[in-house]
Amino acid sequence: MAEKKPADLGPIPFETALAELETIVAKLEKGDVALEDSITLYARGEQLKAHCDRLLKQAEARIEQITFGADGAPKGTKPLDAG
Predict the structure, then answer these.
(1) Domain range spanning residue 23?
(2) Which of 2, 32, 37, 48 is 20 to 30 A away from residue 81, measured at CA?
């Protein structure tokens, strides 16, 4: 029997990927999915989780922090240190 491969994610937005991941989790938690389908769903869920993690890290890298001068007044922004 040939193993089913999950479909490629492509450039799907975070919200779409998260919603699909939540649907997969709900189906798996119900426990009424056939074993082969469960394996395929689990693999797709792993892809979606990695995709969401990647998108979150990219977004975090773009967030800026407000910087303050010696007088306590905001003076500008700098990139968030993602490290």
Answers:
(1) 14-79
(2) 48
